[in-house]
Design goal:
mainly alpha, 2 strands, single chain, two-stranded antiparallel sheet, 362 residues
């Protein structure tokens, strides 16, 4: 009888609990929209007469915008604080969702991709940095890996839940549209709601003490962008560990974008029916997102030899993920394609926790 009581008491008295809850809730909402969107994005665009070349352009613009914006938006977070930058990220995600809902032409969808890429860049890092700063202010010597692992697990759960919900919606029997939207667009509407909730959580619950605010802070941040980019680039280039981690992150991002672009058409080829591929795509996404969640959770249970050397451990895990990519290219059936995706995303998530730890502990 006393064990549950002790657990409850511990959660109440743990000073990190409120900060951790906000961190994990914001993480869940941040990735729920992506989970809803991923299974239907390529299929939705192709049903609107955007060919694979056009889809590739949209993906490329999204990725390029994210990459180019990483350093400048990092300077904004330093000058304005994490909350306004995270709020701007949520607005970028919402603009992306609205563009997908209403977009029928490549030009409009490219504009939406720019907004989504900016949102992705703005969301890259500030939430984790906010949590680390708040947690270290409360418990200076706390280890980061358990909570980073929890966040990775929550991310995987959000992606899986979104993908499963997307699958249910797009396979509604006897329906081709609902409330004026085609079925493939309904998950995008759900993503818009999730991103709106993210905005509310950020504005209400992400609290920080800032001494520099308002228009002056914004002007200072914008004027400081060139110097921030220069300093950040010099730091990344001169520090071997940071340089290797950032280069690795870039390579992983390129690989993941390529996989996300081509696996759905490849699945349709293997199954022999685009309609059937559309029905099972969400299940495939849910399976590899669940594997991603499990991979992040594994980071808390690594053998001591790996746990004490996160750099080499991350490298070994990524080598195994590369082998999974070879398996993906050679997959003889839809089932094996799904298995290869599970292996790849599970291992990438595990390595991601280790890479995050390296950067935050540096």
């Amino acid at each position: 009888m006393s064990w549950p009581v002790r657990i409850a008491d511990a959660s109440v008295t743990d000073p990190l609990s409120p900060v951790r809850r906000v961190f994990l809730l914001a993480t869940f909402l941040r990735w729920l929209g992506t989970g809803l969107t991923t299974p239907v994005l390529v299929l939705l665009l192709t049903t609107r007469d955007i060919d694979l070349r056009g889809v590739g352009v949209i993906f490329a613009v999204y990725g390029l915008t994210t990459t180019v914006s990483e350093l400048p938006t990092g300077g904004l977070a330093d000058a304005l604080g994490r909350r306004p930058v995270l709020a701007a990220a949520a607005l970028g995600f919402m603009a992306f969702d609205i563009g997908l809902l209403g977009g029928r032409h490549l030009s409009g969808l490219v504009v939406a991709a720019v907004a989504g890429g900016l949102g992705r860049a703005l969301a890259s890092g500030p939430l984790e940095s906010w949590f680390v700063d708040r947690a270290r202010a409360i418990t200076p010597d706390m280890g980061l890996r358990p909570d980073l692992s929890r966040a990775g697990t929550v991310k995987g759960v959000a992606l899986t839940a979104g993908a499963l919900s997307s699958t249910v919606v797009t396979t509604l029997a006897g329906a081709s549209s609902w409330a004026g939207l085609e079925l493939a667009a309904l998950p995008i509407a759900g993503a818009l709601v999730a991103d709106l909730l993210l905005l509310v959580v950020v504005v209400v619950a992400v609290r920080e003490d800032r001494t520099t605010r308002g228009r002056d802070a914004l002007d200072q941040a914008v004027r400081g962008i060139p110097s921030v980019m220069a300093v950040g680039s010099r730091l990344a280039w001169s520090t071997g560990m940071v340089r290797r981690v950032l280069a690795t992150n870039g390579g992983i991002g390129l690989a993941v974008v390529t996989i996300e672009l081509f696996w759905q058409p490849r699945l349709a080829d293997l199954i022999g029916s685009p309609a059937r591929a559309a029905q099972v795509a969400g299940l495939v996404v849910a399976s590899y997102m669940l594997a991603s969640s499990l991979g992040a959770a594994m980071a808390r249970h690594l053998p001591a030899r790996m746990a004490d050397r996160p750099g080499p451990a991350a490298g070994g895990v990524l080598a195994a993920a590369a082998a999974g990519m070879v398996g993906l290219a050679l997959a003889p059936s839809g089932m094996w394609l799904a298995v290869a995706l599970m292996v790849i995303f599970g291992l990438v998530a595990l390595s991601g926790v280790l890479r995050q730890e390296l950067l935050h502990e540096w």
